[in-house]
Amino acid sequence: MILSISGQAQLFLLSIALGGAMGWIYDGLRLFRRMMPHGRVLVQTEDALYWLFLAPAVFWVLLKENSGELRFFIFLGLGGGLLLYFLVLSPPVLKVGEGVLRLAARVIRLLFDIIMTPFRLLFYVIGRPAGKIGGFCGRKGKKCLQLCKGYVKIKLRNLRRELAILRKKP
């Protein structure tokens, strides 16, 4: 299919926008990595999944807009869009994204504290006395078990002595 100059310009601008969108999606992945750091293998797996999902998307756009024809200026536009995004827009997007994530973490922490406050109060009202009672019972139970252990030792010693007497032949 033969494109006019204006059609090629539109396709070039579309490929620049697509490159910028690819950079924006990758920044989302970078924010996720900053929020939850993980090892090299998982990072490489995420990168592979990123390209496995975006390569067909780029191909679909090319197929729809350019009848599947691969042209050098399209790849130049994709690379230029990525480069332009990472040089100009990525730093403020990452800064704002980190701020939003920090704010979201604070809000979630605050909601968690609000939800957990009645349970903490209940623990202070019931848990501490119950813990003291349990500790007291545990100490008394331990002493009781130690006494029982001593009692069992005495009984076993007496039982062995009696068995030894029974085994002796007159």
Automatic annotation (TrEMBL):
Lineage: superkingdom: Bacteria
Keyword Transferase tagged: no
UniProt keyword terms in alphabetical order: Membrane, Transmembrane, Transmembrane helix
Chain ranges passing through the membrane: 47-63, 70-88, 108-126
Keyword Heme: no
Pfam families: Spore_YabQ (PF09578)
Protein name as annotated: Spore cortex biosynthesis protein YabQ
Organism the protein comes from: Anaerotignum lactatifermentans
